Amino acid sequence: MYKFTLIFNPYIMLRIYLLCFFISILQINSFAQTIGGKVLSQQWKKIEYGYNPDSIQIDNIYYIHGDGMFMCTNKGLYYYIDSIYRFKKINVSPNLANARVSIIMKHVDYYYTGFRDGYGLYRSHDLKKWEPLGSGKLGTSKIFYLYSMDSMLFVCNWQKTIYLSHNLGKTFRGISVGFNSLGKSYINNIENSEEYMFCSMNGDGVYSLNIKKGTAWEHSDKGLPESKNIGEIADIGKTLFLATDNGVYRSDNKASSWKPYNTGISGKLITRLVAEGGILYAATNKGELFYSEDLAVTWKKIPIDFMQSPISGVCVTDKAVFVAVNGLDAKPSYVYYLPFLLKK
Fold first, then answer.
1. Is residue 84 included in any domain, yes or no?
2. Considering the entire predicted model, what is its pTM?
3. Which residue pairs, CB below 8 angstroms and at least 24 apart, start in 112-116?
4. For the DUF6242 domain, which residue ranges apply (predicted)?
5. Ordered mean pLDDT values, 10 residues apiece, the chain (344 residues)
């Protein structure tokens, strides 16, 4: 009868352990997505603290380089504290503690935030002390969007008016000549590419203005869906992109005409369109998130394993991809993030 003796060799066991470890790393990388040379984690994480997800509606989330991420809601403005994974409420005004904030932006050395409920525009140097800006119609405007370019501060309101300031918001003048005053339309956002400004207007089309030579905005809707249900405009270099209820459209001729670039996202209602680091991100009303690294020629889906509710905000930092989800039918609203792991 034979007897077998198992001999424990620590060196062999170490080699087996290292082999298993490298195999697991290769398996992870084989399934993980890479965006802009960075590997995405496969597990979304939820930010649960600092706000009430059952009563809040998230309008958007914004990333200010060097400062961090902010959340604009129907219950005010919040700042994300990355070190402890929670939000903190920012009190713009005691009388506006629960007013609906539409946007926050940094221009030169000041933070600017606008309210959708008709409370106008506010400015702060340190996020602690805020002062109201503007008078007349601007002071009671429903602010939808803010934009900064060099010394110029642009303010877009519900009444299809764009105001411009050259002195940090002390005084403004209207620059809305050329807009169609008829119909139920409103400004989504504005962008700048080279010497042109572009304005996306839901229910109407896209307007362009030559900053150096133009005196009036010029309208174009050539190639856009008949519904004119359009959203945000984004740019990468000289190329423009537009969110619509039929995917993403692209223009290569300064918004004179548009073509659908929808391989993989045709027929989808795009709720957010963000360009960051040469990469385009498109979110939908069904809780889907796509990205394109080739100017919208092809789209890839980022898997989402949480509730399939409309995505109301997208921002990308050097650490993660963040999305805000507005819960429907009594579902809560949350912010989720998908961390970047390492560079390939």
1. yes
2. 0.88
3. 112/146, 112/153, 112/169, 113/72, 113/77, 114/141, 114/143, 114/144, 114/145, 114/146, 114/155, 115/142, 115/143, 116/59, 116/142, 116/143, 116/144, 116/158
4. 194-317
5. 49 54 41 86 95 95 96 97 96 92 96 93 96 82 93 91 94 92 87 94 95 91 95 97 97 97 92 97 95 97 86 96 88 94 64
Q: What are phi and psi of 280, to 5 degrees?
A: -105, 130
208 and 254 Cβ atoms separated by less than 8 Å: yes
Residue 39 sits at φ, ψ, to 5 deg, of: -90, 130
- Pairing between strand 58-64 and 45-47? unpaired
What CATH number does the domain containing 114 carry? 2.130.10.10
Please give the backbone phi and psi of residue 214, each rounded to the nearest 5 degrees, phi first: -75, 145
Chain-centroid distance, C-alpha 185? 21
Count of domains for the chain: 1
Instruction: Report CA torsion sign: 128, 316, 28, 265.
Output: positive
Burial of 33-48, coded b for 16+ CB within 10 Å and e otherwise, reads eebeebbbbeebeebe
Tokens of 60: 């958007």
What region does 55 belong to: left with phi over 0, alpha with psi -120 to 50, or beta?
Answer: alpha
Residue from 286, 297, 180, 187 nearest 241 by CA: 297
Spatial neighbors of 302 by CB under 8 A, at least 6 apart, are 33, 40, 289, 290, 291, 321, 338
